[in-house]
């Protein structure tokens, strides 16, 4: 078996690596440009590597290897560097990869379009215009989704209560005249990440 040089396993701190990710974090980044022959200085010395630079500032560039390149090709639908700028990829850390006889962790590219959605900003309450605040043990995003489902617009807890009272009065009138059996609306399940009603 080939001998392992530690320098091949220890990652270059100037390029994106395991240390740049929080536990379980997945990063969605947009390819800005590819440098097909960037001089990368590692503990081994200087060498030329293909490197991805991101559109979003503040993220270290990523050295391309075969695994990363193959998955970017899948996401981009093209094997050509020229077609990659503008393509969004999702990065994650894979643990327990056997490389050079050692078990290491590495930055990997998901072989599909990013599925981590950025959260849309929360709209203000339609009735009073104030920000929707957490209430009744529910977070603001849950309340916005719940009120949108029940009243057609996002509301703060206070305004939702007012509308509920108003609706209840109307319902009582309707019920007394038509004797309609009203059933409780089931509480919707809400995706905590996106606030989307499932
Ligand atoms: Zn309100």
Concise account of the structure shown:
The protein has two domains: 6-116, no CATH class; 119-198, no CATH class.
Describe the 3D structure:
The chain is 25% helix and 24% strand. The chain is an alpha+beta fold. The protein has two domains: 6-116, no CATH class; 119-198, no CATH class. The chain has a five-stranded antiparallel beta sheet with strand order 3-2-1-4-5, covered by helices on one side. β1 and β2 (45-54) form a beta hairpin. The chain starts with 5 loop residues before the first helix and ends in a 20-residue tail after the last helix. The model has no long low-confidence stretch (mean pLDDT 83). The protein binds zinc ion.
Mean pLDDT: 83
Shape: elongated
What series of H and E elements makes up the topology?
A: HEEEHEEHH
Strand order across the largest sheet: 3-2-1-4-5
User: Sheet bearing the most strands, described?
Assistant: 5 strands, antiparallel
Helix content: 10-25%
* Overall strand count: 5
How many helices? The count is 4
Radius of gyration: 26 Å
Structural class: alpha+beta
Low-confidence stretches: none
Instruction: Enumerate the distinct ligands.
Output: zinc ion
End-to-end Cα distance, whole Å, is 53 Å
Taken together, the total number of domains comes to: 2
Share of residues in strands? 15-25%
- Name the assembly state: single chain
């Amino acid at each position: 078996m080939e001998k392992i040089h530690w320098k091949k396993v220890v990652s270059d701190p100037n390029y994106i690596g395991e240390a740049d990710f929080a536990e379980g974090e997945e990063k969605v980044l947009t390819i800005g440009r590819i440098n097909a022959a960037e001089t990368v200085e590692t503990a081994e010395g200087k060498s030329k590597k293909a490197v991805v630079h991101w559109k979003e500032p503040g993220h270290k560039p990523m050295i391309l290897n075969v695994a990363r390149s193959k998955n970017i090709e899948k996401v981009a639908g093209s094997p050509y560097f020229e077609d990659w700028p503008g393509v969004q990829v999702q990065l994650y850390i894979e643990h327990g990869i056997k490389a050079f006889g050692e078990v290491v962790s590495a930055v990997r590219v998901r072989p599909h379009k990013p599925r981590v959605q950025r959260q849309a900003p929360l709209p203000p309450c339609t009735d009073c215009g104030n920000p929707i605040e957490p209430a009744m043990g529910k977070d603001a995003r849950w309340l916005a989704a719940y009120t949108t489902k029940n009243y057609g617009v996002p509301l703060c807890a206070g305004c939702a209560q007012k509308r509920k009272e108003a609706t209840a009065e109307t319902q009582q009138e309707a019920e007394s005249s038509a004797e309609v059996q009203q059933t409780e609306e089931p509480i919707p399940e809400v995706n905590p990440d996106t606030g989307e009603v499932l």
